[in-house]
Amino acid sequence: RATGLLDETLVILTGEFGRTPRISNLPGESVPGRDHWPQVSCAMLAGGGMKTGQVIGRTNRKAEHAVERPVKFQEVFATLYKCAGLDVGRVRIFDGAGVPQNLVNDGIQPMRELV
Q1: Backbone region of residue 64 per phi and psi (left: phi > 0; alpha: psi in -120 to 50; beta: other values)
Q2: Distance between alpha carbon 114 and the CA centroid of its chain, in Å?
Q3: How many Å separate Cα 65 from the centre of its chain?
Q4: What is the pLDDT of residues 73-109, one digit of tens each?
Q5: Which of the pair, 47 or 18, is modelled with greater confidence?
Q6: Sign of CA dihedral 63, 69, 73, 76
Q7: What's the whole-model pTM score?
Q8: Which of 17, 53, 75, 77 is deepest in the core (most CB within 10 A)?
Q9: Are residues 67 and 59 in contact, defined by beta-carbon separation less than 8 angstroms?
Q10: Structural Rg of the chain based on CA atoms
Q11: How far is CA 48 from CA 17, 45, 59, 65, 115, in A?
């Protein structure tokens, strides 16, 4: 923190899926385990001028689904773009056919809790 680098550096830690809230033993599996669970996931964001040090959202006690402030992945992306100085309402990129595409879907905004 003394160097100030965290103020201008975005740090992101995330996975592609959460894991099932209970151990499963599906047919054909040799060992019980926890499968992909896209209903709930988590991410850790730091730096980039964000208001960090907080938990946003909450699941039920079994971590099966969100019960408070569900966050969409595109909200996370919009937040990161804003911290990088990009306006998600104005910046467009062009796909392989030359068609302009938005950075995130219409109506998606940066997470108000962080910016």
Answers
A1: alpha
A2: 12
A3: 15
A4: 999 999 999 999 999 999 999 999 999 999 999 999 9
A5: 47
A6: negative
A7: 0.81
A8: 75
A9: yes
A10: 18
A11: 24, 9, 27, 29, 10
